[in-house]
Amino acid sequence: MLHIKNLSLSFSRYGGMSFRKVPLKIISDFNIAVHTGEMVAVIGSSGAGKSLLAHAILGILPSNAKLTGDIEFKGSRLTESRKKRIRGNEIALVPQSVAFLDPLESVKKNIQRAAFLNTGSTAKAGIMMNDAFDKYGLADNVGGLLPFQLSGGMARRVLIAAATVSGADLIIADEPTTGLDRNAIDDSLRVLKELTSEGKGVLLITHDIRAALKYADSIAVFYGGTTLEIAAPEDFKHPEKLRHPYTKDLYSSLPENGFVPVAGLNPFGDMIPAGCVYGERCSRKNELCETSRPDRKRINNGDVWCHHA
Amino acid sequence: MISRQTASIRKSAAFLGEKTFRLAMVMCLVCAMSFVLVQNSPVDPVRAYIGADANQIGTEQRTLIAERWGLDRPPAERFIRWAGQIVRGNLGTSMIFNEPVASVIGKRFIVSLGLMAAAWVLSGILGFALGIISGVWHRRAVSKIIDLYCFVLASAPVFWIAIILLVFFSVMLQWTPVSGSTPPGIPAGEITLAQRLHHMLLPCASLSVISIAGVALHTKKKTVEIMQSDYILYARARGESAFGIVLRHVLRNSLLPAISLHFSSLNEIFGGSVLVEQVFGYPGLGKATVDAGIRGDVPLLLGITIFTTIFIFFGNAAADYLYTVIDPRMRHMEKINEY
Ligand SMILES: Nc1ncnc2c1ncn2[C@@H]1O[C@H](COP(=O)(O)OP(=O)(O)OP(=O)(O)O)[C@@H](O)[C@H]1O
Ligand SMILES: [Mg+2]
Predict the structure, then answer these.
(1) For the domain A2-90+168-305, what is the CATH superfamily, name and number?
(2) What is the dihedral of CA A248, A253, A254, A256, to 10 degrees?
(3) Which of A170, A241, B200, B339 is at 20 to 30 A from A288, Cα to Cα?
(4) Closest ligand 1 atom to the C-alpha of A62?
(5) In sequence order, which residues have a C-beta less than 8 Å from that of residue B87 and are 6 or more positions away?
(6) Which residue's C-alpha comes closest to atom 31 of ligand 1?
(7) Structure ipTM
(8) Parent domain of B18
(9) Does residue B92 form part of some domain?
C-alpha cells in the first residue's frame, strides 16, 4: 500500500559560522513498505526524526523543510497535492500527544468532525461516532469531556477512534504508547492491531522495542535518519538471525539480553557521516564503510543496509 | 452532581467576597488620594462658589462662608466628615449645575453610556476581526498593512484623531454634525433615534480607535501562536480546509483572551471619552469632568472620581469573572481519571 524509497528530509536554517542558510539533514535515504493488513513498526530513538517522517507522508511539514525521494501510495505517486487531497480520509494520523487536540473541542465534537470529513454527512457521522464510542469503550459521559480532562490512555483511545472513523486505509500512529502503563500500552496496540484484520495498513512509530516486537508484523530499524534493517519480529528471538551490527547491539542492550550499552551518541544533523551512518560506533567498520553508503541487500526475507552482511 | 453545584456556589461566593473586599480597599485609597490632591490643588472652593461676584465680596464674608463649610477645620477632621457623607450616599451638590452630584452623574452617564458601549462593541469586533486576519495570514502583505495601521492608531493621540475626523467629515464634507449629542433647538421628545445616531457617529468612531489596536495586536499574537500549535497541525492532517481551521479552531481559541482583554480596556474608553466628548461638545460624563475641573466644582469632580473607580472596577471584575465562566477549562477543573 505504501512504499517509501530513498526519502530524504532536511531543513534550511541559519547555523554554523556563516550567515547563509545551511541545510540540516534529518532523514536520508529512508526506505520502508507497508502492505495491506500489515502493521509495520519504525523503531528509533527520541529526536531521530520519527514524527517528521509521519508528517512528511501527510504533507504537513514546516515550510522550511525540503523533501526528496519517492513515496508511492496505492500504486501511484504521492505528490504534495495528492497528500493534501487524501490526508484525513485515505491516510490518517494518530498524533503523538494530547497537545494535538484542540483544547476547547470536546471528544464528541472531535470524533464527529473526523467522521464528517470522511462521509460529508452529519447523520452518517453521528452513527459512526456512536459505533466508535461502543467499539473503543468510551462511556457516554466521555463525549462531553475536553482534552485536559482525559487520562493518557483515554486520550489515546480518542485519537485512535478519530483515526478509524476517518475511514482511512493507512493509519500512521506516532508513539501511541508514550506515557502509558503496561496495560494501557497493550490496550492501544491491540486496538491498532485489530485494524489490520480489517484490511488496513498501520505504520507504528515508536521507541518501545518490546511493544513493537509483540505486535508488529515487521520491524524497521531507524537510525541516524535512515533504515538500517527491516526484520521480522521472530528474528529478534535469535540474535544470529539479525542482519545488521546495530540491530545486534540493540538486541544486547535490551534488559533481558544483558543490558550491554552501545558506546557513543546517535548521529544527528551535521554529524551524520557520508558513509554508513553506524560507522562511528560499529565494531566492524572498515574503509568502505567510511566512504560509501551500503545498498539494500535482501537476506533471509529481510532487508539490510550493511557492507558486511 | 449536587456536590459539584455547592462547590460552584462556594467558588462564586469566594469570588464575590474577594472582589467586595478589594473594592472597599480601592475606594478607601482613591478617596484618600483624591482628597489630598484636591486639598493641595490651586482650586479654592469658596472662590469657585462665588464665581463672577468675587470683587464685590469682602474677606469677612469669605471667612464666614469658609467657616460655615468647615474649611477652617484641620484636614483630617474634614476628610472624616466628607467620607462619612460619601458612605451615606451623599455626594453633595454640584456648584456649576446647581443640582445634586448624583443626579448630574446619572444624567450625564446615560449619554456617555450609549457612546461608550457603541465604541466598545465596535472596537471589539473590528479589532478581533483584524487580529484574526493578520494572524492567519502572518507575514503576508495584509498582515503588514494591518500591523502598520494598528501601530499608527496606537500611537496617535485620541483628541488628534477626533479633530481630524471632525475637520474632514463635519467641516469639509458636512456629513456629520459639528457638536452635541442632539440637534439644537428641538424638544427632547421629538428627537429621533436616527438623529441621535448621526450625532454619535464621529465621537464613536474616534473613541473606538483607542482600543481597536490593542485588541487587534493581542488577537494577532494569539492567532499566530495558535496557527503554529500542534492542534492546527493535526487539523490539517485530518484534511480540514484553511477555512475550516479558522472557523473551528482559531476563532474559538482566540476569542476568550480577546474578550477578557477587552473588558479590562474599559478604562481606556472611559478615559478617552473625556477627550472625545470635549472635542465634539458631547454632553456626557467626560465633558462634565472637564467642566468640573476647569470651573473648580470640587463636589462634582470628587463624585465623578468615585463613580469612575466603581465603574472601572466592575469592568475588571467582569473580565476576571467572564474568564472563569467562558473558558471551560476553568469552569470544571476536576480531572476525570477513571481509566
Ligand atoms: N522546523 C524545524 N527546523 C529545524 N529542525 C527541526 C524542525 N522541526 C523539528 N526539527 C528537529 O528535527 C528532529 C526530529 O524531530 P522529531 O519530532 O521528528 O523527532 P522524533 O523522532 O519524533 O522524537 P520523539 O521521540 O521525541 O517524538 C528534532 O531534533 C528537531 O530538533
Ligand atoms: Mg515524535
Answers:
(1) P-loop containing nucleotide triphosphate hydrolases (3.40.50.300)
(2) 100
(3) A241
(4) 1
(5) none
(6) A47
(7) 0.89
(8) 2-87
(9) no
